[in-house]
């Protein structure tokens, strides 16, 4: 979402030092904003209200003759428990919920381990995420997490088409555990189950600039609450080792259809008012974005990242923080430490070297990567593993992206 216009001197080459500095500063500014800015609470309350309305509409469509107030109560419970809060909580308003959500978010963001991805590693995680299914996500366990709380910052905004049809520019994903949420048992009752809370952030200064967001940004500025570099988009929880039933999958598909219909209606209304909700700056080709048809991409991205971190595919190292950065982090109550995650270089074989002799390669590309579900007898469960990948081609050439990178063996 985003959208201050800035002068550009052309694309800059990514470096770990610059990436760490941006991520560190963005985390500090965003945590401060969540702690102090009244606009953060009103923004969250508006999103919660919209989520509640969408859920209530969905329930009323499922049972056309149902009582409207009953649908509203059920929808409120689903929204609250979906954030990792107890079903017994009965807040007086969505403003009360927003106050708690923003406070908890500020605390978990400040305490999160901070990771940045190199561009090559980001491409690999995107590719790996797109091989995952909802069935794969059911394998998630608490021991898959590299830390109880973490924030992974991408090297560039990632354009994602939401299930509602809107285009966003994701820049960071956060997780926090443990939280609990209810899940149905085989007997039809509900039990409290451990889960991880996941938050996606848009790049406030990214390429996607719908007119409504430009107006929102100006409103926040006029109130004395200029938006931070990372703006909270969505928060949801994912239970550990939980396989959805066929009925739940059908219900999720129906709810996704409700969101798509609502999104289409809102864009039509915006168009009637002369608003451009698809504004994007820079080089952008329609259709090149990631299409998040089931509202699970951020979960699949993080799960792929966690699984890749456990394997020898990646290398993780600390980025040195200078004295000024440490002082700024200390004043903000956050850690200055940043870990950079890179794709582990593969050893070039004699066959590869011979095959490349006499050729003028113009790109690098990712090869030999596929997903498997490996059975671990000692743990009595499956885990997702990725075989490969490695990058082929000259180190000084650009990495070939698009469908070539994402079209991996499933």
The profile of the biggest β sheet is: 8 strands, mixed
What proportion of the residues form beta strands (DSSP E)?
Answer: 15-25%
Low-confidence stretches: 1-10, 347-358, 401-410
Molecular shape? globular
Q: Return the structural class.
A: alpha/beta
Mean pLDDT: 84
Distance between the termini: 31 Å
Number of domains: 1
SS elements, strand count: 12
Secondary-structure element sequence?
HHHHEHHEEEHEHEHEHEHEEEEH
User: Over the alpha carbons, how many angstroms does the gyration radius reach?
Assistant: 22 Å
Give the count of helical stretches: 12
**What share of residues is helical?**
40-55%
Keywords: Plasmid
Features:
disordered N terminus; two-stranded antiparallel ribbon; 12 helices; alpha/beta; 410 residues; 23% strand; single chain
Task: Explain how this protein is built.
Keywords: Plasmid. By secondary structure, the chain is α/β, with parallel strands linked by helices. The protein has one domain (16-348). It has helices at residues 16-36, 38-62, 68-82, 94-111, 119-129, 134-137, 211-222, 246-272, 297-310, 323-332, 350-356, 403-406, and strands at residues 113-117, 149-161, 167-184, 190-203, 230-239, 290-291, 314-319, 338-343, 365-367, 370-376, 381-387, 390-392. Strands 1, 2, 3, 4, 5, 6, 7 and 8 form an 8-stranded mixed sheet that branches. A two-stranded antiparallel sheet has the order 9-12. Strands 10-11 form a two-stranded antiparallel sheet. Residues 1-10, 347-358 and 401-410 have low confidence and may be disordered.
